[in-house]
Amino acid sequence: MSGMFAVMRKEWKTYFITPAAYVVMALFALVSAFFFYSMLAVFVVQSLGGEFGGGGNLNVNAQVLQPLTFDIGITLLFLLPMITMRLYAEEMRGGTMELLKTSPIRRMDIILGKFFAAFGLLLVLLFIAALYVAVVAHYGQPDLRSAAASFLGLALLGGAFLSIGLLISSFTKNQIVAGVITFVLFLLLWVSDWVTAYGNGAIAHVISYLSVTAHLQNFTQGIIDLKDVVFYLSLIVAGLFLTARRMELAE
Amino acid sequence: MLEVCHLSKDYGPFHAVKDISFTANPGEVVGFLGPNGAGKTTTMRLITGYLPPSAGEVKVDGLTVRTNALEAKRRIGYLPELPPIYPELTVNEYLHFVGRLRRLPARQRQQAVERACQRTALSDVRHRVLGHLSKGYRQRVGIAQAILHDPPLLILDEPTAGLDPRQILETRQLIRELAGNHTIILSTHILSEVATTCQRVVIINKGELVAVDTPDNLTHRLKRTETLLLQVRGPEALVTPTLERMDGVLQVAFQQAQQGVGAWQVEAREPAVREAIARRMVENGWGLQEMRPLELSLEEIFLSLTANQEQPPAPLALPPGQNDTGAIA
Q: Among candidates B105, B49, B95, B41, which has minimal Cα distance to B75?
C-alpha cells in the first residue's frame, strides 16, 4: 500500500514539474470551453426564438449538458493517450523500472500507483469541465442530478481509457507506437455501436456492447445503471490485471 | 549472507547464465569479473529479483528472493548499470522517493537521505535537478539510493564505469568504507579494481563460472612467469641475442624500433632477473630507457583460464625455433 502511494506521489509530482499536466489541462480547457460556448450560444439563439413564438420544448439538459458530456468524452479520447503512452515506456527507457522492481513493493503497487496518479489528473480535468455546469446553474436551472451522473460516467469512462492505455504502454518501449495504438483503440471503442445500424447477429451484439458511448448514454440522462457501472469497472480491472500479467511475462 | 545456487537464465535457446553457484560471507567484498556480455549484469539482475531465474535460486540472509521477494528485497541495495534516475526530480526529491519505496518512515527517511548524501558527497547538489548533473554525480546518486536504507547486501553493477580517475579513486574508497558493515558484490571488467577492493573474485565468461578465488591466488595461479617491457637504445641484432642468452630469461620478442630505441618484450622466470638485465644493458653501453613489468590483462587471464578448461595453457607467441622452456644455447 505505502509502495503504491510512493509511486503515485512521484508520478503526480512529475506531471506538475514537467509541462505535461499544464499542456493537457490548458488544451482540455480550450477545447471543452469551445464546445460549451458553441452549444450554449445555439441554445440562447433558440431560446430567443422561442420568446418570439418559435420553438417549443427548450431543455438545457438535453440541449447543452448532454451533448457536452459526449464532447468532453471525445476530448478525453484525444488527450488521455498522451498521458498513458509514457507511463510504462519512460520507466523502461530511463532504467528506473529496475529501481521499482527491485524495491520491496508489489508489482500491483507500481501499476496502481501509476493508474491512480493518472486518474487524479483526469479528475482535475473533470473539475475544469464541472465549472461549465456551475455557469449554467448560475443562470438557469439544470438538472444537477443528471449532471452529477454524467460526471460519474465520464470518470468511469476516463478510468477505462487510462487502464487500457496503461496496458498498451506496457507492450512497447516506444511512446509513439503506444500513443497511436491507444488512440486508435479508443476510437474503435467509441464508435463500435455503429454496427447495430446494419447488423444484429451475435457478433454485432458483442461489438456494440463494447461501445463506451452506449454505456455513457444512461449517465447523461441521470440514470446510474449498475450494468453500465459494471461495464466500465470491468474494463478498468481487466486493464490493470492484464498489465500485471504482462509485466510478469516480460521478465 | 548471499547464496547463489545453480542459477541459470535462458532466453529461448540462448543461455545468458549457466549454472552459477557461489556464496558471499557477511562483510565480504566479492568482485564479479568478466568481459562485456559475459552475463555479469544478468546475474546481478537475477540476484536482485529484477529477473526471475530459469533454474536455481538466490538466498539473501536465508530468504529466497523468488518466494520471499519483499523481505529479501528490503535487504538489498542495487546500483544498476545505468543509474536509475528520474531526470526531472531533484536529488533530494529523488532520494526521498526511493526512501518511500523502501518503506522508511518519515523521520528515519530524512536521516537516511542526509547520511547517504554525506557519504557520497552529494550535499552541495541536493537541490539540483538530476537531469542537469554530470555523469559522475549521477553515478553517485545511484550509489546513494543503493545505500539509502542501509541494506546488509549491496549489489553494484560497474560502479566506476564512466567516471574520471579521481572519481574512480573516491568510489573505490567509498566501497572500502562500506565493506565490513555490508556485503558487497560489485562487477567490473577492470582487473586492478578487483585487486584493490575485493577479497574474492568470481570470474564468469559466456554465462559460465570460470573461477572463484582471492585476487592474489588468481594472479599467482596464472602468473607463473613475469613479462617485462624493455626500451633500450641499442642495435637490435646485438640486444636480442644478449637478452636471450641470459639466465632466467625464457623468451624474448623484439617489437619495434623508433629513432634507434627498440622495444622488447621479455618473459623472465622471476622478478630478480630485472636487475641482471639492467646491469647487462648498462655494461654494454646501451641506453636503458624503460623497464616495467606488464600486468596480466583481463584478456590474458581469460585466455588462460578458458584455455585451461580445454587445452594446456596457451603460450605467448614464440619466435620460430624456440620451445617454451628456455633460450637457444
A: B49
B203 and B98: one domain?
yes
Tens digit of each residue's pLDDT (9 = 90 or more) over B285-296? 888 888 888 766
The answer as to whether B325 is a domain residue is no
Q: Which helix (H) or strand (E) holds A49?
A: helix A20-51
- Please state the pTM of the whole predicted model: 0.82
Are residues B50 and A2, on separate chains, in Cβ contact within 8 Å?
Answer: no
Pairing verdict, β B29-33 and B55-60? unpaired
Segments of B158-286 assigned E as strands: 183-188, 200-205, 208-213, 226-233, 249-258, 261-268
Q: Are residues B65 and B115 in the same domain?
A: yes
Residue of B67, B86, B101 best to disrupt the A interface, most CBs of A under 10 A: B101
10-residue stretch averages of pLDDT, chain B, 329 residues long: 90 88 90 84 92 90 88 93 92 95 92 92 92 90 93 92 84 86 87 81 86 77 74 87 86 84 85 85 88 70 61 43 39
* A101 with B49: Cβ contact below 8 A: yes
How many Cβ atoms are within 10 Å of B52's Cβ, its own excluded?
13
Q: What is the ipTM of this complex?
A: 0.87
Question: Residues B151, B280: one domain?
Answer: no
Q: What is the pLDDT of residue B251?
A: 84
Q: Is residue B297 part of a domain?
A: yes
Range of the domain at B266: 223-310
Domain membership flag for residue B319: no
Cell digits for A6? 510512493
Chain A residues in contact with B101 by the CB 8 A cut-off are 3, 6-7, 99-100, 103-105
